[in-house]
Design a protein that fits this description.
With 114 residues, the chain is mostly beta strands. 14% of the residues lie in helices and 44% in strands.
C-alpha cells in the first residue's frame, strides 16, 4: 500500500528499525531507528541524531530542514550520510504491514515497525 495524506496519522506515534540502508544491513542495528511524532521525525543509525518536521505529500515524505549532530563515528558515517541524503530527497514511502520502504534516486531504506 502506498501512503497517502490520509495515512499520515498512521505514522504519527510509531517507531521503526532500519533493516537495510542502500541495500546493506545497518552497522549498528540495535541503535538504527526512525520515529515519528505528530509533526517531527527523528532518525539515528548508530551515532548522530537527525530530526526535523515532516509531512506526507501524496506518497512522498517531505520534511526539513533536518538538523543533525556531527560527531565522528567510525564505520557509521557512510550510512548516516545515506539516510540524510535519502530524507533530503523527499523519498517515496510504501508501507506494507509492519514494513516501510523509503526510496529516492540512488538511495533506499527498509524499515520494520517496532
Amino acid at each position: 500500500m502506498t501512503m497517502t495524506d490520509d495515512a499520515a496519522p498512521q505514522l504519527s506515534g510509531t517507531e521503526w528499525r532500519f533493516s537495510a540502508i542502500d541495500g546493506a544491513p545497518p552497522v549498528r542495528p540495535d541503535r538504527a531507528v526512525m520515529s515519528f511524532t505528530q509533526d517531527r521525525l527523528s532518525a539515528n543509525v548508530g551515532c548522530n541524531g537527525l530530526g526535523g518536521h515532516w509531512r506526507l505529500d501524496g506518497d512522498r515524505l517531505v520534511g526539513g530542514p533536518y538538523m543533525s549532530t556531527k560527531m565522528f563515528c567510525e564505520g557509521v558515517m557512510e550510512q548516516e550520510n545515506a539516510v540524510s541524503a535519502l530524507l533530503a530527497a523527499n523519498p517515496t514511502v510504501i508501507v506494507a504491514g509492519d514494513r516501510m520502504t523509503l526510496t529516492a534516486p540512488g538511495r533506499s531504506a527498509e524499515l520494520r515497525r517496532d
